[in-house]
Amino acid sequence: MKHWPYPLWIAHRGAGKxxxxxxxxxFRVGAxxxxxxxxxxxxxxxxxxxxxxxxxxxxxxxxxxxxxGKRAWSELSRVDAGxxxxxxxxxxxxxxxxxxxxxxxxxxxxLNIEIKPTLGQEAETGRVVAGEAARLWQCLAVPxxxxxxxxxxxxxxxxxxxxxxxxxxLASLDGDWFDLAAALxxxxxxxxxxxxxxxxxxxxxGAGVRALCYTVNDADEAARLLxxxxxxxxxxxVDRFSPAAARDGVLA
Length: 252
Hints:
The chain is an alpha/beta fold. It has helices at residues 24-32, 73-76, 97-106, 122-136, 151-160, 177-183, 198-206, 219-228; strands spanning 9-11, 37-44, 50-52, 110-115, 145-148, 166-170, 188-192, 210-214, 232-235. It has a 9-stranded mixed beta sheet.
């Protein structure tokens, strides 16, 4: 992508610390702090409906237990995904991908979709999520950015919707990460912030690929990355970092 259309600051899982992560409530809180770009995790229900959840299992963020992807959406849609965070969010449901897309599109926001498959569903999740994203954003100039730690998910997403931009997520820079990103025709690489440095950014930019980092919650670390010319910062600290912060490291 010669023109990078996405905002620099991206709210992680909506505003996943101030509100229950990956819910519409979290997106609304992030928007109330001025954020216009959001990251979320999307997987499939047993009957193939895309929905938002980070973990394979339900127990960290709901009162239920077991693998979420083994349940039908009709059951998942009734699960309380808010009470674990705080009493004020009790009753907040698990969000469908369709609901999140509607919120983002109607408000003119931007979305980084992390394809987060249940084990064994890597290709199917990539295919379905990319297909649904292409359908929902078909008339819009700026599409969502599809990202994943799973190469099989990105490969399937490319086959299903080659027009949608893709990003490779990395927790380390071991092995042939650069060649893998190129083979998957990724427009961006998103790393944990601790491994991003000037050399990595220069290599990516030299190849016409954007450099993003997760999850940056420390002001000094954010300033370091801004000074290096990072293209995107995914953060939980939506109440401390202004999305209008300058690229020269001045954090409002």
